[in-house]
Structure formats: C-alpha cells, structure tokens
TrEMBL record:
This is EF-hand calcium binding domain 10. One of its GO terms (molecular function) is calcium ion binding. Coiled coil: none annotated. It holds the Pfam family EF_EFCAB10_C. SUPFAM superfamilies: Dimerization-anchoring domain of cAMP-dependent PK regulatory subunit, EF-hand. InterPro entries: DD_EFCAB10 (IPR049760), EF-hand-dom_pair (IPR011992), EF_EFCAB10_C (IPR056587), EF_hand_dom (IPR002048), EFC10 (IPR039879). The gene is EFCAB10. It comes from Equus asinus. Residues 64-99 form the EF-hand domain. It comes from the Eukaryota.
C-alpha cells in the first residue's frame, strides 16, 4: 500500500512543482470565457506564447482585454450596483490564475469597483 501512496505523493509533488493544475485551470477558464471557434488551435497558440515568453524571459502573456474584463465584472455584478464583493473578486483572481488559494489578499472592507477590478486584473 505504501508504494501507491508514494506514487500519489510523487505525482502531487510533480504537479505542484510545475504548477500544472494552475495552468490547466487558467487554460480552461480562458477557453470557457472566450469560447474560440477552434479551441484546440487556440490552446496551442496560448501554449506557444507561453513557451516563447519563458524562453525570452518576457512576462507571461495575458489573453484578456478590457472588454473581456468588463464583461466578467458585469457577470459577477448581477444586481448592477457597480460593485462586487471581496469574495467574488478573490474567486475571479483565482479562476484567472492570478492568485493561489493559499495566497492572502487583504480585504479593506470596501466593495470592488470596475476600475479597481480592471487595475488588479
């Protein structure tokens, strides 16, 4: 039984070391948000940009523009108050792969506006 537990631990360590789950979560989120006509080609293009960014030392390419960010904010602001809660904000950042589940974000007690959401994302 120990061998099975050891293999699971090795697999988990590998996934964590290479941030595979975060990458897959990000790719899935972007894919579902943008819904490209040719999803496989779109994913290949994202991965190719990631490879180039890593090889050249350039920052990871982000694939959302301001209109996408505004649309995401509007989906979360279902009551159309012009703000979202800190919990919604943190979940959006996690979904986009911009923070991890264990990362501590400070809640200043204020609702998140579209402008703040855009600047953070």
């Amino acid at each position: 039984m120990e061998a099975g537990g050891s293999r699971e631990r090795e697999a988990r360590n590998y996934l964590e070391k290479h941030q595979i789950m975060e990458l897959l979560k990000y790719l899935t989120s972007v894919l579902l948000f943008i819904r490209p006509e040719k999803p496989r080609e779109y994913l290949i293009a994202i991965l190719e940009k990631l490879r180039i960014a890593k090889a050249t030392g350039v920052a990871f390419p982000f694939f959302m523009d301001h209109s996408n960010i505004a649309a995401m904010f509007d989906m979360m602001d279902s009551s159309k108050k012009g703000t979202i809660s800190f919990v919604q904000y943190k979940e959006a950042l996690k979904t986009l792969g911009l923070c991890t589940a264990d990362e501590v974000l400070k809640d200043d007690g204020h609702a998140i506006t579209l402008d703040k959401f855009k600047s953070e994302v």
